[in-house]
């Protein structure tokens, strides 16, 4: 074997190995999502990340999360979250391309990633597997996982998992834990006002956990209350 042939073989493997690793990771994500079609996730990547952060200050700290089925979560909260986060959730294929284009234009103006234009399915993809960092590489992986979720699950199952794992405050995940943390009630008994306020907190839950009486929160809650009646549930 000539030196040039041996060198070419090494060059091929330099390209092949990353591709094989990438495909192996995608296969892992696919199999995990397939399992979650009829099994509930216990911990997401985002939960583990936040629990680790909490334990840096308190080694005994744990996140608060309690799984409840879809029919035991108030329709008020479902409608509020769709009205606030993803009005076209029941109709799109996992990605709202118009919102994504607007986010891209906004990021170009700011010269950094400040907006994601994420749908509920995209947010779930991030929460299940990815970090909270913002980059186009992570966004690309998020899109791949999003299409896996939409291919393997119906909208109701996607929304059920989202409602149970989304972050609502410092160490508080899922509708049931949020309802108890903020209002001392179950997720099934959330009023329209309570639900609207929880939905408005989602883009920055840890901040609003500490600033529950902010003027923005009050104004935005009123807007979502008015929109909830037109929100389509899966």
Automatic annotation (TrEMBL):
Sorted alphabetically, the Gene Ontology cellular component annotations on this record are: peptidoglycan-based cell wall; plasma membrane
Q: Show the catalytic activity.
A: [GlcNAc-(1->4)-Mur2Ac(oyl-L-Ala-gamma-D-Glu-L-Lys-D-Ala-D-Ala)](n)-di-trans,octa-cis-undecaprenyl diphosphate + beta-D-GlcNAc-(1->4)-Mur2Ac(oyl-L-Ala-gamma-D-Glu-L-Lys-D-Ala-D-Ala)-di-trans,octa-cis-undecaprenyl diphosphate = [GlcNAc-(1->4)-Mur2Ac(oyl-L-Ala-gamma-D-Glu-L-Lys-D-Ala-D-Ala)](n+1)-di-trans,octa-cis-undecaprenyl diphosphate + di-trans,octa-cis-undecaprenyl diphosphate + H(+)
Where does this one sit in the cell? Answer: Cell inner membrane
Bilayer topology reads: Single-pass membrane protein
Transmembrane portions of the chain? 12-37
Class of enzymatic activity (EC top level):
transferase
Question: What's one Pfam family here?
Answer: Transgly
Pathway linked to the protein? Cell wall biogenesis; peptidoglycan biosynthesis
Provide one Gene Ontology biological process annotation. peptidoglycan biosynthetic process
Task: Please provide the record's keywords in A-Z order.
Answer: Cell inner membrane, Cell membrane, Cell shape, Cell wall biogenesis/degradation, Glycosyltransferase, Membrane, Peptidoglycan synthesis, Transferase, Transmembrane, Transmembrane helix
Q: What is its EC number?
A: 2.4.99.28
Q: Does the keyword Cell wall biogenesis/degradation apply?
A: yes
The molecular function GO annotations come to: pentosyltransferase activity; peptidoglycan glycosyltransferase activity
Query: What InterPro entries does this protein map onto?
Result: Glyco_trans_51 (IPR001264), Lysozyme-like_dom_sf (IPR023346), PBP_transglycosylase (IPR036950), Pep_trsgly (IPR011812)
Q: Where is the signal peptide?
A: none
**Gene3D superfamilies from the xrefs?**
Biosynthetic peptidoglycan transglycosylase-like
Tell me the ranges covered by the Glycosyl transferase family domain, including all copies: 61-228
Q: Which family does it belong to?
A: Belongs to the glycosyltransferase 51 family.
Q: What does this protein do?
A: Peptidoglycan polymerase that catalyzes glycan chain elongation from lipid-linked precursors.
**Annotated protein name in UniProt:** Biosynthetic peptidoglycan transglycosylase
